[in-house]
Amino acid sequence: MVWQLRSATPDDLDAIMAIEHAVFPTDAWSRESMLAELGNKHTHYLVAFDPATPDRFDAYAGLLAPRGATQADIQSVAVVETARRRGLARTLVQALIAEARDRGAREIFLEVRVDNPHAQSLYDSLGFERIAVRKGYYQPDNVDGAVMRLEIPSPVTRPAVGQ
Q: Parallel, antiparallel, or unpaired for β 71-79 and 107-113?
């Protein structure tokens, strides 16, 4: 499967909230909070979809990164169950890292549930390091959140082969 990514808009709120409630049934963001995120000039949200069905999203992800700030935060990454374990979350996180870099960030942070080993493994593989634990961060489940940090690498440019 090949997904296409595009910037999310407030018009995507219903579809994003459907994913949010499916993926995070006990601690989903409120509709009002998500709408504020989608309309905030300091955030960047993406949706992912099959180009054959552009009105049906398989994932979304969001970033808080004010232009010129040296730090950014991944707000959320959510992939529907049928699209998991195929690299979509990795693609979304890499796109958010690139956007944070473009906005001037030099490091990026996130929180991940300590009971989500798949997400933790993804972030580990991308070079994030655990720097703290927020006790009871995810409510109402009272699950700890691991705080992770990535020093954003500089882009690497290489000459074309055979040139």
A: parallel
How is 18-37 classified by DSSP, letter by letter? Answer: HHHHHH-TTTPPPHHHHHHH
- Three-state DSSP at 84 gives coil
Rounded to an integer, what distance in angstroms lies between the CA atom of residue 72 and that of residue 152?
Answer: 10
Q: Record the tokens describing residue 137, joined without a space.
A: 């961060």
Spatial contact of 79 and 118, defined as CB atoms under 8 Å apart: no
Single out the residue of 133, 53, 49 nearest to residue 92, CA to CA.
49
End-to-end Cα, the chain, rounded Å:
33
pLDDT tens for residues 79-97? 999 999 999 999 999 999 9
Which are the contacts of 33, defined by CB distance < 8 A and separation ≥ 6? none
26: DSSP letter:
T
Torsions phi, psi for 125 (to 5 deg):
-65, -20
